[in-house]
């Protein structure tokens, strides 16, 4: 594996509050890196900095050995795709048109000839082939999330950033997202995904970055990072970590409550 994105001593301050503090990490090709942590830990902010959506107040981020700030918007769109938490469009585009938006960075390039294949593959992977003629504004929250994922996949970039891609999905489609992330990494792409479900992170990630209060507390393989002691300390709730068939299950230890 080789480093695709490198962040060095990255800090971000918003409204006078330090949101990220001295973050250093590498995103490598051929891996899935999961970012986890409590609400407000800085996961989405870090994702936006790594993807070039936000410039850090201090530190540097490089893409292919060049400062991220030195890449044009078009260069970034051809190198990385970003799925944000907001799956909203005010105009009633058809799903097919939304997926076509993902191909726009490749207009007037030889890759334009690959549009049909890329669109069909993205629709199949995200399970939206049956929605192509529907209006985006008429879809359920879960359907919108899958269409937004398909748009990102249609962009067909070497680096993929996913911010809480499973949040609105049912169990089957959560598993589909995990499969897609693993397939992308197997194809040699770099995948960074923000997840709240720690068990999903343990199942999909090659490495996990655990954040708390804007700092990178731990970074490494899931079994090294997702320990009961570390998670209990960061989240402020006692948990048990169970290994089953090579994956980790994180279970909160709840006090007994009377049932009425």
Summarize the structure.
By secondary structure, the chain is of the alpha/beta class. It has helices at residues 43-51, 73-79, 95-101, 115-125, 141-155, 171-186, 198-204, 222-225, 228-235; strands spanning 3-14, 17-28, 32-36, 58-63, 66-67, 80-83, 159-163, 190-194, 207-212, 215-220, 239-244, 247-252.
Structural overview:
This protein has helices spanning 43-51, 73-79, 95-101, 115-125, 141-155, 171-186, 198-204, 222-225, 228-235; strands at 3-14, 17-28, 32-36, 58-63, 66-67, 80-83, 159-163, 190-194, 207-212, 215-220, 239-244, 247-252. It is globular and about 50 Å long. A hairpin with a 2-residue loop joins β11 (239-244) and β12 (247-252). Helix content is 32%, strand content 29%. With 260 residues, it is α/β, with parallel strands linked by helices. The chain has a single domain (3-252), classed as Rossmann fold (3-Layer(aba) Sandwich). The model has no long low-confidence stretch (mean pLDDT 92). The chain contains 9 helices and 12 strands.
